[in-house]
UniProtKB/TrEMBL annotation:
Protein name per UniProt: GNAT family N-acetyltransferase
Alphabetical keyword list: Acyltransferase, Transferase
UniProt-listed Gene3D superfamilies: 3.40.630.30
Signal peptide residues on this chain, from the entry's feature table: none
Pfam families: Acetyltransf_1 (PF00583)
InterPro entries named in the record: Acyl_CoA_acyltransferase, Bact_Acetyltransf, GNAT_dom
Length: 241
């Protein structure tokens, strides 16, 4: 099965969940944001680009000057950077798997009136996100996206049940911030949102739908794997103590 490359997925991650500011610091790419999670505040190093200890120190200094705890995203396999950060006392945080699905491999359609697509999101969607720990700073990240995007809204009967955010670039869509209210879990709400994302991605001319999920989130991983999604990339963070 044809799937996007690791490089494609990381490029989409930056496009679909963008930092407020991005700056080069030697070989490192630094992200500056007022909240919004690790993805928009982490430093990255292009694959297999050489670096020095002094350049790591320069990156740390700049991140701290912005009021951010030094945080590096290790994309793919970069044992040199991983080892250098471990030596400096950095801890591993949140190992993540990226999944992708070829849209031609799954049928179209969702249950009638079970999921709606919109932008901007209704207040009820923001309320659902807040209940799940996704606050205004992360909604601000969604608002910064400059590629096609949508908020998804699922109901159970006449009750609001769940929401998610999806954005697309270069033939790939990525789903973020999927949240289902506790009373409506295990009722197919997450699956309805996934199917709505699939339909939306097709409408944008995408070939694939992707998601990122922490390795420890077994229920979400099980959902994605049931849909036929396959792992295509991995990353983890190293955070200064």
């Amino acid at each position: 099965m044809n799937l996007p490359t690791e490089e494609d997925v990381f490029a989409l991650l930056d496009a679909s969940w963008p930092a407020q500011e991005v700056h080069d610091c030697g070989p490192f790419v630094l992200r500056r944001s007022n909240g919004g999670g690790k993805r928009v505040t982490a430093a990255t190093l292009p694959t297999r680009v050489p670096f020095t200890e002094n350049q790591i120190a320069d990156a740390e200094t700049q991140l701290r000057a912005w009021g951010q705890t030094p945080l590096f995203m290790i994309r793919g396999d970069d044992p040199q950077l991983d080892a250098a950060l471990e030596t400096r006392g950095y801890n591993i945080v949140d190992p993540v798997i990226a999944y992708a699905l070829d849209l031609s491999s799954i049928p179209t359609g969702t249950e009638v009136a079970s999921a709606y697509v919109m932008w901007p999101p209704l207040q009820i969607l923001c309320d659902i996100w807040v209940e799940g720990g996704i606050g205004p700073d992360r909604v601000a990240v969604m608002e910064r996206v400059r590629t096609p995007k949508a908020a998804l809204f699922a109901r159970t009967g006449d009750e609001a049940a769940g929401t998610a955010f999806v954005a697309a670039a270069n033939g790939i869509a990525m789903l973020h911030a999927l949240e289902v209210l506790p009373p409506h879990r295990r009722k197919g709400v997450a699956q309805n949102l996934m199917h709505a994302a699939l339909d939306w991605a097709r409408e944008q001319g995408c070939r694939w739908l992707s998601v990122v999920v922490t390795r420890a989130n077994d229920p979400a991983r099980a959902l994605y794997e049931r849909l036929g999604m396959q792992p295509v990339a991995e990353y983890h963070y190293r955070m200064a103590t």
